[in-house]
Amino acid sequence: MEKEECLLSDQVHSNSHTTEATLSAGGQLRWGDRRLDIEKQVLGFSVEGFKIKIRAVVEAGAGICCCGGQSTLIRKTFVLELLSNDSLRIWTQKLQEYLDSLGRPKRLFIFVNPYGGKKSASIIFQNDVKPLLDDAKVEYTVQETKYQLHAKEVVQSLDLAKYDGIICVSGDGVLVEVLNGLLIREDWENAIRIPLGAVPAGTGNGMAKSLLDSNGEPCAVSNATLSIIRGHKRSLDVATMSQGETRFFSMLMLAWGLVADIDIESEKYRWMGSARLDFYGLQRIFGLRRYNGSVIFVPALGYESYGEPLDLENKIMIDDESEMKSEDGVVRDREYGYQGPEVDIKSLNWRKIDGPFVSIWLHNVPWGGEDTRAAPDAEFSDGCLDLIMIRDCPKLALLKLMTELNNGGHVKSPYVAYLKVKAFILQPGPRADDPTKAGIIDVDGEVLARGKGAYKCEEKTLMSYDKLLIKVDQGLATLFSPI
Ligand SMILES: Nc1ncnc2c1ncn2[C@@H]1O[C@H](COP(=O)(O)OP(=O)(O)OP(=O)(O)O)[C@@H](O)[C@H]1O
Question: What is the rounded radius of gyration, in angstroms, for the C-alpha atoms of the chain?
């Protein structure tokens, strides 16, 4: 192995021993039998007398847990005592220079949702996030969310120049609100460049799980916080869902049919905790519903064989995107702000599949929740959404398939079509067995539309249960990421 250039080498006291300490140009700090990779492990340092106190994270040994209960990381302080003033000055200067060269975020705006998940986000912030940020000397402003859409409201008028990132200690819901808040700003083009960070503290932590799993890390609070402190970034596709003038910006997924029904209707069993999904999932499989309707999509390269080319009637529908009108009285965002990607949808190679369908699922990232590897091949910024589609499936096969959701094995089932699409139109219809009842369209864990006779159909939604156009803007948003 090539020997690294040594920047500094000095005698130090550490743990009552005198030993040689070295700092390499590549940021490796070594003394005795210890080694720290500054970029990966060191949060910051402070100086007391001749002592440099290095705040770091290290892998926990077997059986040690901290930071949210399942972490592999623990905070640790290492003390190096220099033997002269000159050595101290040069060591602190070189360490600081190295940390400064890493381009880490210095000021963060942090949302904490005290209401999400097990209602423990405030404690998670206090006990597990804050100490790491303090060790890294990151400045932050904390805003607890007080009601639904509060985060979206705050982000709309936030002075973004003051911050290097916006962090959500929450589930996916608040993160999606932040995305929507940024994109309806007048200065959205600049605003959307701010990196967003997800610290898992909700029921649905699909984005945090997807990010950490992409680097083989557990979906733990400490891992997520460390990845934010280290400041690596990656881009993320944003899907614009539109119905006439009404738009919603999505970063995770859309579900219609079985998955949406389980996700939303199981609310009534919330008292069961996460078991509600399995319990209600079983009910829905035994009383399986199939929905009429169709999906029209632009297949990505390599998936052109799925579906049929459009007939004349549907071609006209594509020609007249304005046909997709929203109902009167729905909330419309102001005219300025992001209008969705500029794609000439008429020029695209659309194809169509007719229902009835058991389930339609569109995914931007691999994990829909910590236990749901919905779209194992999904990539963060490939400009595509992964479509997971079930038209018909015997109940036993469906049951088996649902048990494989946690490892992504379901997409190999002969009853599942799994493909990548660049644009998508959902034409949702009523249940095949009961035309008086329609379904639910679930986007990023929230209800976007409810059809007639659907669960809680009297509740107002942003869009109507009608044609929905989805376009993808490749890499529009930026996320803090472990790699
Ligand atoms: N103080 C609050 N009271 C009520 N709702 C809130 C509050 N703060 C945020 N919310 C809303 O809570 C919803 C869920 O938030 P989040 O995604 O963080 O948690 P979650 O646990 O994943 O969600 P859920 O419990 O709904 O599955 C969001 O729609 C958000 O607007």
Answer: 25
Total H helices, total E strands in the chain: 13, 23
DSSP 360-385: EEEESSS-SBTTB---TT--TTSS-E
Summarize pLDDT for 52-109 with one digit per residue, the tens.
999 999 988 644 444 444 557 999 999 999 999 999 999 999 999 999 999 999 999 9
Answer whether 199's CB lies under 8 Å from 168's CB.
yes
In order of 21, 60, 127, 134, 204, the CA distances from 131 in angstroms are 27, 17, 7, 5, 24
* Ligand 1 and 206: CB distance under 6 A: no
**Minimal CA–CA distance to 18: which of 86, 74, 67, 83?**
83
List the catalytic residues. 172
Element (H, E) at 94: helix 85-100
Mutate to test the pocket of ligand 1, among 125, 144, 148 (most ligand atoms within 8 A of CB): 148
The pLDDT tens digits for 223-235 are 999 999 999 999 9
Q: Give the tens place of pLDDT for each residue, 179-205.
A: 999 999 999 999 999 999 999 998 889
CA–CA separation, 30 vs 33, rounded Å? 7
Q: Is the CB of 442 under 6 A from ligand 1?
A: no
